[in-house]
Write a structure and sequence with these properties.
Layout: H1 3-14, H2 16-23, H3 34-44, E1 49-54, H4 60-74, E2 79-84, H5 87-103, H6 105-111, E3 115-119, E4 123-126, E5 131-136, E6 153-157, H7 168-185, E7 192-197, H8 205-211, E8 216-220, H9 242-254, H10 258-265, E9 283-285, E10 296-300, E11 313-321, E12 324-333, H11 337-350, E13 355-359, H12 360-378, E14 384-387, H13 395-400, H14 403-407, E15 411-414, H15 421-429, H16 436-442, H17 444-447, E16 451-452, E17 462-463, E18 473-481, E19 484-492, E20 497-505, H18 509-523, E21 529-533, H19 535-538, H20 545-552, E22 557-559, H21 563-566, H22 571-575, E23 577-578, E24 581-582, E25 584-587, H23 591-600, E26 602-603, H24 619-639, E27 649-651, E28 657-659
Parallel strand pairs: 1-7, 1-8, 2-5, 2-6, 6-7, 9-15, 10-13, 12-15, 13-14, 17-25, 18-21, 20-25, 21-22
Antiparallel strand pairs: 3-4, 4-5, 10-11, 11-12, 16-26, 18-19, 19-20, 23-24, 27-28
Length: about 675
């Protein structure tokens, strides 16, 4: 052998990383990183047990094949086991080694023809007597012996899979197998074990080896810090620069597999117990089954718009039917304050003027003042409800409160997966990655907290295009609270009551009442109209603008009961069915009444956890109390024989009056 080749052999023997660069340059299209040199040094050391964690496609398997080839050529071991997850994968590793020994020209010049007589699929022997055998972790590991020699080297390449880390007993079984089958199978005086792997769970063999002082451990994630930190450096910049790492991370996040990215590339185990939301918990429908339900727009605004480091402005549009939560729209954007304000109006308008709920911590004057100014500029009132962020738990704990609802299948995404890509990705990534849309959804537990006054109201009480019969009496119920005037128009024919239309106005009472009465008379010309107001308004009729406005329009006004006395009085009509018709029907166009009875009219939770004594203030309460007052008045008049004026009636043989559809003379 020429002197220069002898010198090269000596240098390669002392520096195996150099040997890999010289002998296997055809396998290294990019410059090798410093981590490769460190890994080879760990493997070359005299340490008995060595664990190497390296990111996916970091070259650890390729490096292992090259290192084992040089070790075999130099005769540094007598008998090595190449162990893969399965027998087939172990054969792949051995096949790559066989290809280099028999076909690598550089190795041939340095070591000559090394191929021995035994050259099988799973076992080869070199001319120098070195033996390599492939085996699967799922095979029997006892009794390895070749011509009286026990293995003195074992290389384990990613032997764990997801099924092996599914629970602690399974990990225990594999951990015992390592110590009771593999380790005793090796020569006790010369053994060396080299393991490469990725932590697949919070409890796995890689994690246990890492915690065991017996093992020398080295870890190589794809970068050395926070991916979004400008100071972070890539571990292999020639092949995986930070721009690629960030883009790849974002691709995984959009697909809802951020945890898998962190596991495979950052070596952060995807903890099973830390995954409150799973794929099988997702429920989808194409169309919401109850489009009349009241909807809420929940916004979680972000104060900054740095795409890399800032939170997004998360939003969801939700409604509730019983325990079911329907998500009609969701999304997250890097909006500036003016875009957030515009978004509040646009999203609310898309959903019938839905109330906008905004996290109070983000609201303050920073967003509240622009919202007020925009309402004046547009001449449009936007219902805004601030909510306080939870003070007794962090964001992750707050979001985890949704888990029982997802597990029970009570969260339904309307429009399918494609309509909620950001929300689904954040669900699948949680607790990693961005959480802004998910945090907005978590407020649904606060927004819909409370008990509806009428829990039995449903589709059976809704009809299309209701029209009053010829003998029906039209009664207009009104209620006013603060600057809100609510009105409902009822058609009364005996016990059955039909809600034909409703109105809500923030105009002055005189103007609001005048407009409503004109609309009723234009829609139902020639029909006699009566009005009914709660006792609180009627008793102040001399100075109350609502009653005075009705009197000025020559509409007879009935005194209804006090609002507290009429509360809950719709329940018998909602539940009772006569001749396949519920006694209370609401036209599908009466959106305010539908949304009030569908859950908007409710008792909110009190500070002590009990339900409040009074329903929540707002439009839904105003409209519902107007309806309750009319129904209570009509029922009282009918029960006591004081039939509403103008209604056709007759007398039965016992002398009691009743409403009839027969016309009077």
């Amino acid at each position: 052998m020429p002197v220069n080749e002898q010198i090269l052999l000596k240098e390669i023997s002392e520096d195996r990383a150099l040997g890999a660069a010289v002998c296997f340059s055809h396998r290294h299209p990019q410059q090798s990183p410093a981590m490769h040199v460190e890994i080879v040094d760990h493997w070359r050391a005299e340490d008995e047990f060595v664990l190497i964690e390296a990111f996916r496609q970091g070259g650890k398997t390729t490096l292992a094949e090259e290192f084992l080839t040089l070790e075999a050529e130099f005769g540094n071991f007598g008998y090595a086991l190449v162990i893969g997850e399965t027998y087939a994968k172990a054969i792949q590793r051995l096949d790559a080694i066989k290809a280099e020994i028999s076909g690598n020209a550089a190795l041939g010049r340095l070591f000559g023809r090394a191929k021995g007589v035994t050259w099988n699929e799973n076992l080869i022997e070199l001319k120098n007597g070195t033996v390599l055998q492939a085996a699967g972790w799922d095979q029997e590991l006892r009794g390895f012996l070749h011509r009286g020699k026990r293995p003195d080297r074992a290389y384990l390449d990613d032997v764990e899979n997801k099924s092996m880390v599914r629970d602690t007993p399974t990990v225990d079984a594999n951990w015992r197998r390592f110590w009771t089958e593999l380790v005793p199978a090796l020569d006790k005086d010369r053994r060396k074990i080299r393991v490469t792997g990725t932590p697949l769970a919070d409890d796995c063999m890689v994690k246990r080896m890492k915690a065991d002082p017996t093992f020398v451990h080295a870890s190589y994630p794809i970068c050395d810090g926070d991916i979004d930190d400008p100071a972070t450096r890539a571990t292999w910049p020639e092949r995986y620069p930070m721009e690629w790492i960030r883009a790849e991370r974002d691709r995984y996040a959009r697909a809802g597999t951020l945890r898998e990215f962190l596991q495979e590339f950052m070596l952060v185990s995807a903890q099973t117990q830390g995954k409150p939301f799973t794929e099988d918990q997702l429920r989808f429908v194409d169309v919401a089954p109850a489009g009349w339900l009241p909807r809420k727009v929940i916004m979680d605004p972000a104060r900054t718009v740095d795409v890399r480091r800032s939170d997004q402005t998360g939003r969801v549009v939700v409604s509730r039917l019983g325990t079911r939560i329907y998500v009609h729209e969701s999304g997250g954007e890097f909006w500036r304050p003016d875009q957030i304000v515009d978004g509040c109006f646009r999203v609310s308008e898309r959903h019938d003027g839905a109330e906008v709920v905004i996290e109070k911590n983000s609201l303050d004057e920073w967003l509240l003042q622009p919202l007020r100014a925009e309402q004046l500029r547009r001449g449009k009132v936007l219902a805004v409800r601030p909510v306080q962020a939870p003070q007794d738990r962090n964001k992750d704990e707050f979001i985890t409160g949704l888990q029982p609802f997802f597990e029970a299948g009570d969260v339904v995404l309307v429009g399918g997966r494609s309509a909620h890509q950001v929300l689904v990705s954040q669900l699948m990534n949680f607790p990693s990655g961005k959480k802004d849309v998910l945090n907005a959804l978590a407020y649904v537990l606060k927004v819909f907290a409370g008990v509806p006054v009428y829990e039995d109201f449903g589709e059976a009480n809704i009809a299309d295009s209701l029209e009053p019969g010829q003998s029906a009496q039209l009664v207009l119920g009104l209620q006013a609270q603060g600057d809100t005037l609510g009105a409902v128009l009822l058609s009364v024919e005996g016990q059955p009551v039909s809600v034909l239309a409703d109105w809500a106005s923030t105009l002055a009472p005189l103007d609001g009442v005048r407009d409503i009465v004109r609309l009723v008379r234009a829609a139902w010309p020639g029909r006699r109209l009566q009005a009914c107001v709660p006792a609180e308004l009627y008793d102040q009729r001399d100075r109350n603008p609502v009653v005075r406005a009705l009197q000025g329009l020559q509409v007879p006004v009935l005194r209804g009961p006090h609002t507290g006395g009429a509360r809950g009085g719709l329940s018998p009509l909602i539940r009772t069915e006569v001749r396949r018709r519920r006694l209370l029907l609401v036209d599908r166009g009466a959106r305010n009444v539908l949304q009030a009875l569908g859950g908007g009219y409710c008792y909110p939770p009190g500070a002590n956890g009990r339900m409040a004594a009074e329903p929540e203030q707002g439009l839904y309460r105003v409209v519902a109390e107007a309806l309750e007052g009319v129904v209570a008045t009509v029922a009282s008049d009918t029960a006591q024989g004081r039939l509403p004026e103008g209604v056709h009636h007759a007398t039965n043989p016992q002398g009691a009056q009743y409403i009839t559809t027969l016309p009077r003379r």
